[in-house]
Each structure stands twice: as C-alpha cells, then as structure tokens.
Amino acid sequence: MFVAPLLALAVLVPDPGTPKLWEQEAPATNWARTPDPEVTSDLMPGFAAQLDLQGWAIVRCYQETDGHPYNCRVVEERPQGLGFGSAARVVVASGELRLGRVAGIPMPGEVRARVRFRVEDEADEGGWSGPEPSEIQLKLARQIVDRAYEDGEPEEDDFLDGLDYDRRAVVQAWVDELFVEVRAERREALVLQLARLASESDLRRLLAGDYVSPPDMDRFESAFPESKAAKAAVAELRRRYCERYSCDASEVKTDEAGGR
Fold first, then answer.
1. What is the pLDDT of residues 58-110, one digit of tens each?
2. Source organism's superkingdom (predicted)?
C-alpha cells in the first residue's frame, strides 16, 4: 500500500543531475547583427549637429523573440533635451537580436546598448574644390532661385530638430535675433550653390521644368559658400544655449552589454 506514494515521490523529485529547465540560468541575449553605424550618422539630431554638440544615450531592450529590438526604453542620455535618446532607440532598432537558448528553447532576455553621436570634424569637410560658375550660369541660377522665392522664402530644414518642445520658444527667439544677416545672405548663397552644382545645360533644363539628377550630399554641402556671419551666429547661439541648458556629454560608466 506504500507503492503509489513512492511512485508519486519519484515523479515530484527529479534526479539532481538533470536540473529542471526553469532552474537553469538563461544564456545572454546577443546581437545577431549590430546596429548600423551609418544610421547613427543619419539620425544625428539636427539642432545638436548645427551647434556641434556630441551626445550619447543608453537604451535597454526587453526581447521575447529573435529579430529587431522592439520593446526598448531610454535609461540615460546626455546632454538631455536634444533628442539623443529618441534617435538612439531608432539606431538600436536597426540591429537584430538572438535570444539565448536552453534545451533549444528561446529564452526572453535584455540588452543594454550605448549609442554615441559625434559631429564630423570640420577639418575633414573639404570646401568647394570645383570650378567657379560662369556669368551665364549665375544668371540662370538666379532666375531659378527667384522663381522659388515668388511664393515667399523657401522653408529651411527644421533647425530645431530634436530639441525638446519646452525649450523651443526660448531658442527660436535667439535664432530670430542672431540670424537676421544670415537669412539676408541666404538668397545669394543659394544662387552660387546652384550655379556651382549645375552645368549651363542642366540649368536651362531646370528652368524648362525638366528633371536633373541631384548631386551627392557631400558635393551639395561643399557647394554652399561659407559665411562668417553664420559662423558667428552659431557660436553665439551655442554659448547662450549651453549657458542656460546643459551641454555636458561626459559619460557615466555602466555595466551595459552590447554597448557601442
């Protein structure tokens, strides 16, 4: 009559040499493909880039399946308020994770990654090295730019990209004050940029409304003439911003895995 209880005991107490699945420590979740470094460059917050401010963010992701990280949150970012955390989440999502396995079964896990955003050194950015445009090219380019201005000044890229909205009113007032001369120069700068980039035949095609293949981004940016007024305005804007808000990007040591 003691057989049944003994059999039950044998089922409930497993061999200590074969630990149960849930007693084993799950192996770490690892990167099957690390985030794309080019994405980091592409997602550099615009306002921080304009002010040459570098930054970083630490992102923690909880993952239940293999693939792109989808359940992530920012646990630290510096400087705060410039959009580095939001950009870092997108950067991390460009990678792919592989869960650890126990007995072939995927086990949910976490990863922590540090994403660093750096501004390109201006010394590495060559100025315009191509030929200067002819008078005819400048005349045609001016006609094209004048058309663009007929309905008002063309919109600029979002200068405050990434900046926290509760700081934008203050910063926009500074921009409006400091960039008056820069905006006045912009029209002629656009004329020179376009004339440098497009041949006479391409300019005539643009005036006729035909399609012309755009230049690569490096050539496009180098064709825009340097402006002492713009450099002075950016320097003063950076001084004011960093004086009122923190621009500290010093790093905090953490135990994040898979950091970048």
1. 999 999 999 999 999 999 999 999 999 999 999 999 999 999 998 888 999 99
2. Bacteria
Distance (Å, whole) CA 5 – CA 11: 10
Asked whether residue 102 falls in the same domain as residue 159, the answer is no
Q: What share of the chain is helix, strand, coil (3-state, %, to 5)?
A: 45, 15, 40
Looking at residue 223, its amino acid is A
Report d(CA 218, CA 130) in Å as an integer: 12
| pLDDT score, position 167 | 97
d(Cα 67, Cα 14) in Å, to the nearest integer?
Answer: 35
Q: 150: domain range?
A: 126-244
- pLDDT score, position 121: 64
Do the beta carbons of residue 60 and residue 110 sit within 8 Å?
yes
Burial of 135 (0-12, 13-18, 19+ CB in 10 A): exposed
Element (H, E) at 259: none
Phi, psi for 98 (deg, rounded to 5):
-125, 125
**Is this model's pTM higher than 0.85 or not?**
no
Both 25 and 45 in one domain: the answer is yes
